[in-house]
Amino acid sequence: MASRVKGLGWKVVLAVAAISAAGAGEAYAASCKQADLKGDWLVELSTEAVCDFKIDKSGSFKNAPCRPQRGSGVRGTATGKLTVDSRCKVGGTMAFKQKSEPTLNISVKASLNKSKDLISGKATSKFGSATFKGFLQ
């Protein structure tokens, strides 16, 4: 009888550990607010451009300089706004201007990571989709 109880004890310990681990995951689930986007971000638009976004508390950025990445010829400025919801989903739009080209409107759908220093997702324009990655500086 003692061996049956001893064996049962391990099952209870494992069950409690599994329940605790599941609960701990929920306790550490990311919760975001708009202020989490405020700051200086290095943004990569696929392999085309790298931009320096200075995002204010409302999520706006203006005339962010963008330069070529990996030999690409894309150079210009980006102006727009990003928002984040409580589930850390990031969305927004931006207008990308190059010297002699029409303004390109871009929509962004992404996520802010748990440590709130990386935005990753997709940027979409009339030309298709590209990766969008923002690194808090």
How would you characterize the overall build of this protein?
The chain has one helix spanning 2-27; strands spanning 39-45, 49-55, 60-68, 76-84, 89-97, 104-112, 118-125, 128-136. It is of the alpha+beta class. An eight-stranded antiparallel barrel has the order 1-2-3-4-5-6-7-8. It is globular, with a radius of gyration of 22 Å.
What keywords describe this structure?
alpha+beta, 137 residues, disordered N terminus
Q: Helix and strand string, N-terminal first?
A: HEEEEEEEE
Low-confidence stretches: 2-28
- Distance N terminus to C terminus? 62 Å
Q: What is the percent of helical residues?
A: 10-25%
SS content category: alpha+beta
3D shape: globular
Whole-number mean pLDDT: 82
Counted by DSSP, the helix tally is: 1
| β-strand amount | over 45%
Main sheet attributes: strand count, strand direction, barrel closure: 8 strands, antiparallel, barrel
Radius of gyration: 22 Å
Quaternary form: single chain
Strand order of the largest sheet: 1-2-3-4-5-6-7-8
Number of strands: 8
Secondary structure blueprint with pairings:
Elements: H1 2-27, E1 39-45, E2 49-55, E3 60-68, E4 76-84, E5 89-97, E6 104-112, E7 118-125, E8 128-136
Brief write-up:
With 137 residues, the protein is an alpha+beta fold. It has one helix at 2-27; strands at residues 39-45, 49-55, 60-68, 76-84, 89-97, 104-112, 118-125, 128-136.
